[in-house]
Amino acid sequence: MKKANIKQLATDNIVIMVLILLVVGFSIGNATFLKPANVINLFGQMCLNAILATGLTYVIILGGIDISVGSAMAITGILAAKAVLALGAQSTAVIIVIQIVVGVAGGAIIGLFIGWLVAYRRLVPMICTLSLMQAFRGLAYIISGGGPVYGLPNGFSLLGAGRLIRTESFKMGIIPCIVIFTIIVVIFFHIILTKTVFGRHVFAVGSNASVAHMCGIDTKKVTLKSHTICGITAGLAGVIAASKVNNGHPASGDGYEMFAIAATVLGGTSLAGGSGSVARAMFGCAIIAIINNGMTLMEISAYWQKVVIGAIIILAVMLDMAQKGKSE
Amino acid sequence: MKKKVLSALMATMMVVSLTACGSGAATEKEDSKETAKTEQTEETGETKDLSELKLAFIVGTENDAFYQSVQAGIKAECEKLGISSPTMADQQLDGSICTDLINNYVAAGYDGIALSANDPAGTVPALQAANAAGVKIFTFDCTLDDEYIDEYISFVGSDNKAGGVTAGEYIAEHAPEGSKVGCITYASAQSTQDRQAGFEETIQAAIDGGKDLTLIESMDADNDQSKAADIMQNWVTQYGDELSYIFVVGDPTGYGALSAIQSAGSDTKIVGFDAGQTACEYIADPEVGKIWVAEVAQDPEGIGAGIVGKMAEYFQTGAVAGDKKDLIECNLVTAENVKDYLK
After folding, report:
1. Cα-flanking dihedrals φ and ψ of residue B213, to 5°?
2. Which CATH code, of 1.10.8.420, 3.40.50.2300, 3.40.50.1820, 3.40.50.1980, is assigned to B161-299+333-341?
3. What is the pTM of this model?
4. Helices (H), B45-64
5. Of residues B224, B230, B235, nearest to A45 (C-beta)
6. Which residues in chain B touch residue A247, judged by CB atoms under 8 angstroms apart?
7. Quick check: ipTM above 0.90?
8. What's the CATH number for A34-327?
9. Domain B49-157+300-327 identical in fold to domain B161-299+333-341
């Protein structure tokens, strides 16, 4: 009986098993991997993807998609950098307020626009956001004038690159601010999805939009709100990415949508809609970050890294689908 | 059945609309050229031949400071020589898009096309077709492999490999004995691959020559700052201050590496490539200059002006004198000479 329970647990959480395997594999393969400093790095390196995946989980549960998040990142990153320069902000607190306001407001406007197109103009999400991915990238280059927006005060990099609690062995600090920020964002949106009426509506619309509509749910409004949330997280990720490298760059976030979608799906969120979880998407983010980090430490050639990361994602999703197929 | 008919109809419509767009743009271009031509002839008279030329210039990507400067050089030189409204195009670092552009210009009856062959092998078939149609081909920045040297008339560009060697020599000279050095690269472009190769070969030669250095495996940051920052952070964690120097194949990669070095408080130094204004300001900065110590400088405006000069020479005299490949030297920018590069 006990044996069966363990087996059941393992098969139910195949993604977590893959994660454990990777950790064991890399710690055997490389001495640095499990060192505290590297573990801290790892948490920091999965943050951008984690913030993106948080909002994407909402639209993917709806059965939709948003592939313009990477380009949206570039826009808010540049806007935040420009805003800080234009307002001449010097104090770190003011800068952080500007960053968060620009990230949330800029992201919300972008998300509202996408939500309006998808919900009220009935555009297919894939085509809609594919076009906007191009348009936003172009806008990012236009706003920035083609090059990086730089010369920012040091406070700008606190959220993305700063660390708290300095000790003898960790002169630059132990806890990355980006991790604290990400945890707040993830918990906030996880609670909204699991504990609120709106959250239940998202699942209901994703499972069967017609039934949800007949039950009196305003499906259009739910779609609009979900895309707005996705926009906000993309906006915040953009600001954090700019903060991480202390400049706003129009090429920022290029290709990030694919990793964020992969992380979300690895976390068990179904592309067909109706089921998913923000918290579980974090396991997906961890897998991707660990593969990237571990392979760099082991000096695996850059060409192979691309092959391996693609193969592991396909494998994990296949295993996950096979398990779900069985349980159904 | 209905669906099939519908989809076939849709496909036809799409094709028709595409061709319509294409030819529409071409005619428009032609019109503007026509008016420009007459104006030019009236004004300059003696350079009539040049003003009648239809030339297209295809850069790697308009989203990059380097190619923006190349375009500026092209435009300025064209204006100087009286070449009216040259067509500027962007292949978005994609050989397939480049091929389409070349085919369009051949169909539109251009006299000459100059391109940066960022995907050398991928553009060869289109260039062969262009040559067969009598369109003259020139390359700049990136060129074709030597087996296809007959496919173009002239090449002007930086010696990317020599630039990598310059960076390698600087690092081999300055890196302390017993330390490690590495390269954050961009593996998807010929030019950056050449820089990486030049650097790696030079370091390897120094090691073979008795210098006690370790060359760690080069990593690809996909020209993405944040990825470069992550790679650098991992390296700093693994090697600490043992990693004395890194070579980055382009400025954006350098910005990412710089932020990781700064936030880790590490002693690793950066040698970059491109010498964009941002990088030069970093070298000149008393604080950042301690980390970002040198840059390999190309002369993008010189490359742009150079290729226009070659084209003008060819269309006026029927040949281009001198070497087929005009390689412009890369210079090393350090704190001592950075003033010359600041605008």
Report:
1. -130, 155
2. 3.40.50.2300
3. 0.75
4. 48-51
5. B230
6. 225, 255, 278
7. no
8. 1.10.3470
9. yes
